[in-house]
Amino acid sequence: MNGESTEVAVDVRSTEGTTVRLDTLEDTLRFGRSLGAMLRAGDLVILSGSLGAGKTALTKGIGAGMGVTGTIASPTFVLVRVHPAGPDGVQLVHVDAYRLAGAVELDDLDLDTDLTASAVVIEWGEGVAEQLADARLTIHLDRRPDDTRLATLTAVGDDWTPRMAALSAADSQSD
């Protein structure tokens, strides 16, 4: 936390259980920007982790990488925030499923219609949002005692495999 840039290492030998160490808030934002730059309409990213694990910070980075307009803030009390696309981009639909009772309430939000035209990021979505898309990226954020984070990425669907490799390449070049 001394302000120095640290390397974000991604192990892409497997699309299940790939781990990214995020030492600082800037690392989290940078990783989010790299991920956001490769998101496209129809993508679903599911975020999980305890309170304070960095889900909203990661989403801020994703939005910056996508070039969306507006401030990214947690949608806890409004459930869904739509961030308009920047030039030549796609919009970001940011969902907080924390207060939802399950998949039925998530389905009531009609996200499947948004998913075709947007990239959708769902905080607290693990166990309730997987039915929205056959292909998806799940990221579990674990806040460590030293205040670093470990992000475990699980990709489902063939189109995520090459993007995981591209994400690794982008992060290794960002330092």
Automatic annotation (TrEMBL):
Protein task: Required for the formation of a threonylcarbamoyl group on adenosine at position 37 (t(6)A37) in tRNAs that read codons beginning with adenine. Is involved in the transfer of the threonylcarbamoyl moiety of threonylcarbamoyl-AMP (TC-AMP) to the N6 group of A37, together with TsaD and TsaB. TsaE seems to play an indirect role in the t(6)A biosynthesis pathway, possibly in regulating the core enzymatic function of TsaD.
| The name this protein goes by in its record | tRNA threonylcarbamoyladenosine biosynthesis protein TsaE
List the GO terms this entry assigns under cellular component, sorted alphabetically: cytoplasm
* One Pfam family in the UniProt entry: TsaE
Give the keywords, sorted: ATP-binding, Cytoplasm, Magnesium, Metal-binding, Nucleotide-binding, tRNA processing
Coiled coil regions, renumbered to chain: none
Broad class of the protein's primary localization: cytoplasm
The record's family statement is:
Belongs to the TsaE family.
Q: Where in the cell is it found?
A: Cytoplasm
**GO biological process terms on file:** tRNA threonylcarbamoyladenosine modification
Domain of life assignment: Bacteria
Question: Which residue windows are transmembrane per the record?
Answer: none
Query: GO terms for molecular function, please?
Result: ATP binding; metal ion binding
